[in-house]
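Deliverable D2.4 — example input (structure tokens):
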């Protein structure tokens, strides 16, 4: 609003689809004041824009990946994940409900019924505000009788984690262009 009143051009960047009715109401009021929109994906566009405005007012810019860091030709696999033989299925994310990690764990349960030699890895930090959520996830793992789902905590070597990964999973239902998916693709992992 301030930029518009000052005569400056306004560009709005939207990168998620998890939104409340209040945010959508505010967007419907202030969104039309924007000169352009940058979206993380078509899913974000559809969430906020529906059938308008015209496509010339928006562009999609996916999260950038530094391919000199996420380079499978120079990256050594993470030793922590390599300790687990077989097919390693991994997600990289903060431990938070928006990442829908219960979907990842439920997928482990389903795949274990028909496949052997799988291990499932959750790599990412758990902040103190999310400890209760992590405890619920640990409870779900126990309830489903899973012994091949592992929490690794935060990693300073995400390229190495991805290099040790056979299949990368993004379980979130609301993220429309997560960086981790593009990083996994840069590392030539199955996504």
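Example output (designed residues):
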């Amino acid at each position: 609003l301030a930029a518009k009143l000052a005569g400056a051009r306004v560009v709005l960047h939207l990168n998620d689809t998890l939104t409340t009715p209040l945010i959508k109401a505010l967007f419907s009021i202030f969104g039309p004041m924007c000169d352009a929109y940058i979206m993380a994906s078509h899913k974000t566009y559809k969430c906020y824009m529906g059938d308008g405005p015209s496509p010339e007012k928006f562009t999609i810019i996916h999260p950038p990946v530094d391919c000199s860091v996420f380079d499978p030709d120079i990256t050594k696999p993470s030793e922590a994940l390599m300790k687990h033989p077989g097919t390693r299925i991994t997600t990289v994310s903060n431990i938070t409900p928006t990442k829908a990690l219960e979907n990842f764990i439920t997928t482990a349960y389903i795949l274990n019924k028909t496949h052997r030699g799988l291990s499932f890895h959750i790599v990412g930090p758990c902040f103190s505000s999310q400890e209760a959520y992590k405890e619920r996830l640990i409870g779900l793992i126990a309830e489903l009788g899973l012994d091949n789902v592992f929490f690794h905590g935060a990693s300073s070597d995400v390229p190495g984690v991805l290099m040790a990964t056979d299949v990368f999973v993004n379980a979130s239902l609301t993220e429309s262009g997560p960086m981790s998916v593009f990083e996994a693709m840069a590392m030539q992992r199955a996504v």
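The longest helix spans residues 101-114.
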